[in-house]
Amino acid sequence: MPDTYLVLGGSGLLGRYLAHRLVDRGNVVAVLDIVQRYDDIPFYSGDISNDGVVVDVLCKTGATCVFHTVSPLATEAEADEFWKVNVEGTKQVISACLAAGVQKLVYTSSAGIIINGCDINGADETYPIPKKGYQAYHHTKAIAERLVLEANGKKGLLTCALRPSGVFGPGDRVMVAAMYKQYQLGRTGVQIGNNRNLVDFTSVQNVADAHLLAADHLKLPVHPDFPVAGDAFFITNDEPWPFWDFANGVWDRFDQYFPGQRVKKKPFVIPQWLGLILGTILELQGWITGNRPIMTRYVVQMSSTSRWHNISKAKKSLGYIPKVCMGDELDNMVKVCECVSIVDISVS
User: Chunked in runs of 10, what are the mean pLDDT values of the chain (348 residues)?
Assistant: First the structure.
């Protein structure tokens, strides 16, 4: 009998693609989110961290497979909000799945849970997770992943976790808005670091495909050589780019839609060590004034260190093959955003 699906966070970028993938292949699917942006898929409103919300929706939908994509944005929330949603919310999701007899739970973790401030080159799933995450987002995502994997096998529930890196694609509102703001303010001519640091960015379409593969492979008996249940998998485009090549790729595409808005120049390079000093000063200034600093130590680290991963495990166990390449997805993302007005997105 085919599964019935519930996508938690189905109004978000990944959740939206995932829900549509399920509809396109003929599955029965519903969405649970705190905000409704679309009306073409059955929608339930609710906060997963509130007691009884998830189990109520599970009983109404009869879902047998749950995709948990919910999380505050990595750069937008405070530590207590990350804990409330990522940890307490995930506990509620697990309890609800067990109470409702759900058979499968696929959790959207993050490749960032292994970030430790140093270069990460070709890390696989054996790479250690720091006891204290680099930021509250990473720390709470790591705890949530552990909770989900520990729930595997309880009351017949099968679980797994996917760790995508740098998700982007058509429909993105956050990354595009931030990069368009930098473009408008003329801040595209500054580069932090030497741009030799490779970073994994991943098409949202590829990440959605990986989630479907994970759910389809969550079954008994478990394959002895390529287990999925109780395991975690890095998901990337398998084509890491120098960090600033990605940023410039977006800005260059903006030039196509806003000709003459900027004069492209050779970038002014700030060494990483100097960037960290400036980030510290600007953070202090922001703390004093109450304004968000334009540069932080976190931003410096993220833009000047390597973060790319080995996805052999996902290829072997899930049959995951990235179908959408980086260049095509950048084209798609900027084109779609231009059609709905990047300007409107940047101020919404």
Answer: 94 95 96 92 96 97 98 86 96 98 98 95 97 91 98 97 96 85 89 96 98 94 83 98 96 90 90 94 92 88 96 97 96 75 46
Contact 342, 257 (CB under 8 A): yes
Give the three-state DSSP class for 109: coil
| Beta carbons of 45 and 54 less than 8 angstroms apart | no
104 strand-pairing partners: 65, 158
Q: What whole-number distance in Å separates Cα of residue 301 and Cα of residue 192?
A: 9
Query: How far apart, in whole angstroms, are the C-alpha atoms of residue 301 and residue 118?
Result: 8
Check if the beta carbon of residue 85 is closer than 8 Å to that of residue 272.
Answer: no
H helices present in the chain, as ranges: 13-24, 53-61, 79-82, 90-100, 136-150, 174-184, 204-217, 243-257, 272-289, 297-304, 312-318, 326-339, 342-347
Pairing of strands 198-199, 241-242: antiparallel
Q: Which CATH number fits domain 4-169+201-238+308-323: 3.90.1640.10, 3.40.50.720, 3.90.79.10, 3.90.76.10?
A: 3.40.50.720
Could you list the active site residues?
141
